[in-house]
Design brief:
By secondary structure, the protein is α+β, with helices and mostly antiparallel strands. It has one domain: Alpha-Beta Plaits (2-Layer Sandwich), CATH 3.30.70. The protein is built from 3 helices and 4 strands, in the order βαβαβαβ. It has a 4-stranded antiparallel β-sheet with strand order 2-3-1-4. It is globular and about 40 Å long. The termini are close together. The mean pLDDT is 96. It holds the Pfam family DUF1428. InterPro entries: Dimeric_a/b-barrel, DUF1428.
Length: 117
């Protein structure tokens, strides 16, 4: 079964185009190194919950949108090898980009698939 990296972050609405530019480059790099898919989604129906919610999780403000993204890989081992190459790729060097979001509020992690239909 596939392995998945998932991300949730808040992007200022004014920076959405810059974020998409950066994500397009990042996605092409991940795919080049072997990721099966790279998907970016913008919140469309994510109410602010009383206790928990996507906006609460990333402390999104009224001038930000919540982004949910994920990358799929053939396996955990291939994910680790692909990510090592991605992190070393000069196209994604931190000094190359003016980060269009606050990385301290990004939530991310790796997940083993347990059901695929």
């Amino acid at each position: 079964m596939t392995y998945v990296d998932g991300f949730i972050l808040a992007v200022p609405k004014a920076n959405l185009d810059a974020y998409l530019t950066m994500a397009t480059v990042a996605g092409s790099v991940w795919k080049e190194y072997g990721a099966l898919s790279y998907v970016e989604c913008v919140a469309d129906d994510v109410p602010y919950g009383e206790l928990t919610s996507f906006p609460r999780a990333v402390m999104a403000t009224d001038d930000e949108v919540v982004i949910f993204s994920f990358i799929t890989y053939p396996s955990r081992e291939q994910r680790d090898a692909i990510n090592a190459k991605v992190m070393a790729d000069p196209r994604l060097a931190p000094d190359k980009w003016d980060m269009p979001f606050d990385g301290k509020r990004m939530i991310y992690g790796g997940f083993k698939s347990i059901l695929e239909l």
